[in-house]
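Whether sequence alone determines local backbone shape is best considered at the level of individual chains. The sequence in question and its structure tokens are set out directly beneath this paragraph.

===
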Amino acid sequence: MPKVTQEHRDARRLQIAVAALRCFARSGIRGTTMADIIAESGLSAGAIYGHFASKEDIVRAASREILENRIAEVSELAALSPLPAPGAVLNAILTGVRRDVGDPRILVQVWAEAMTDPVLHATASDTMLAFRALLAEYLTDWFVEHGVPDAEARPRASRYAPLMISLIQGFIVQSAIIPDFDGDGYLEAIEGFALS
């Protein structure tokens, strides 16, 4: 029997997670069954359960994947010289969220599930703290690049990193709840987001 590569396993896990996200968008996390995910993915039950023990495992994996993709994007942007402006970084993050998630209601549901699922809460919290730290590092470098003394840059960045996260979360919540929310307008406006 041919040996399955890690790349193949990762691709299969992603295929399952994407199928689950489509189901969650249609029926909600609680309204989606493993049978729904199996049918949506086109894979066998054995293939699904070979990668995930439960629907909750899939939710955790999908949410981790979404956050890790954002961390990778910010890491790439933070390596540029000169550094992109904070508004451009926010725009890139939100564009990535739109691309990966599609329906923002899914993330709102994941946040709600994290309040009652200790493992999902820990996963979301750990990843969000890492994301906030990465934004603070980027902002520290950005402030220094724009003439802020080193001694002031880090505390200022620590104050602004949570604000950037709030702008991301605000986009997601408004996209999920407000029927006529202008996401493109929000992204356009956020390009002008300036820090002082």
